[in-house]
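Q: My labmate handed me this sequence with no annotations at all. I'd like to see what the chain might look like in three dimensions before we decide whether it's worth expressing. Could you predict it?
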Amino acid sequence: METEARNRPLLLSLKPRFADAILNGSKTVELRRQRVSAQAGTLIYIYASSPVMALVGTVDLREVVVANPADIWERFQDQVGVTEREFRSYYESIETASALLLKNPRIWSESISLAQLRDLGSFHPPQSYRYFSKTDVSSIFSAMHGRQNDRRASCHA
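A: Here is what I predict for the chain of 157 residues:
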């Protein structure tokens, strides 16, 4: 079961400021309180939470580093996109921190809104992250290709 989960894409739910920073390349490390069991090369879908509420792009997982918060801060403080105060508040009373090292951010030219995602099925953005199923990924591609076909049809009408 764990191996199966490790090979599936991830969906990260992020505040828009962090989603933007990851996708523009200024934030290359995403912080998590819980260990994320994923392999290098895992595709990560970025969902920007309210007020954006949309899938906005993807990024690849380079590595997961698990250590105590002080070590994570020491190694990655210039790449996490938060102040030391925000970092300490986030990891207050937490003994083990996870750092997702990211590479190859890809901003989509058009995002897929929460309403569009819900039209495809019972999509619910996670509080933190979740693994995507093959059905989830197929739905996303259907939404993206459907939009492209709609544009082509309107151009030829």
